Amino acid sequence: MTRVAIGIDLGGTDIKAGLVTETGELLGRYKKSTDAHVGGRKVVDRIGDLIQEVLDSDAMRGRRDQLQGIGIGSPGLIDHKNGAITRPVNIPEWDYWINVREIFQERFGLFTWVDNDANVVALAEALFGAGKGKEVVLVLTLGTGVGGGVVDHGKVVHGSRGFAGELGHIMVNPSGPVCGCGNEGCLETYASASGIARYAQERCKVEHVPSLLKEMCGGDRSRITSKMVHEAALQNDAVALQVIEHAGKHLGIGIATLILCFNPEIICIGGGGSNMGDLLFDHARKEIKWRVFFDSHFSTPIVRAQLGEEAGTVGAAGMAF
Description:
Layout (H helix, E strand, L loop, with lengths): L3 E7 L3 E8 L4 E8 L6 H16 L11 E8 L2 E3 L4 E3 L11 E2 H9 L3 E5 H12 L7 E7 L3 E7 L2 E2 L31 H4 L1 H11 L8 H5 L9 H9 L3 H25 L3 E5 L7 H14 L10 E3 L6 H8 L3
Parallel strand pairs: 1-4, 4-8, 9-12, 12-13
Antiparallel strand pairs: 1-2, 2-3, 5-6, 6-7, 9-10, 10-11
């Protein structure tokens, strides 16, 4: 029979779980509120309760012998070698180092894999999504921040200490805006949803320049979102189109660096920012063509990621196969 694994996607609001086959099919979906305010140890208990729910589910019936283990994707710094979660940014009162692998192996008798949430999303796209069948896959997620990961022949690239793949924090402008990480000009400050919204808010300060964005936000520039920028751009709003060009250019600068470092076979872009599609990607492609000396001979495809919100759960389970 087909092998299966339990995938856990730990978020600040919800814990999502799924029973996933080795082909990436979700046989069952489960969810429980994180209740992050109760602290790390209690959240771990809630993860355990959700795993038990999966084990007791109808989808699990008759499949226990095919169950390979548990995979967990979590925000924050991860000690993936030992299976510990440290400092997840959206869960306060988390003890510095909680070895969830030991906890769940003792409770369920199942091997447990743990990795950063962006890495498991990258793994999902590489194994089951837009990067399926490709040897080296690079994935970027354009959300509130910019996450990502690199998958080489089915394995996430972790680096010597497990911190490789912080793709949103490569520098694309040494004089750029200050990032949440403390550096200046990170890719995240330009290509994330918040970075796009921030730049649009700045552009709308110019009083004599008309824009649909000023109407959409009701005169309050702080309410402008990346979604508004996209909607205005689809109506050929000049300011919105300039904002997207600005984001796409810097996205291209960042991707060009990543292409030169990793030479991926394909680049998959997910998250809310990917909804802009070629409006955004074409500006990135133009920048890459100029900056990557071998692009005219060996162009790297840039495509939208396929798995959407299920990528975290599917990718977490994918660590078991």
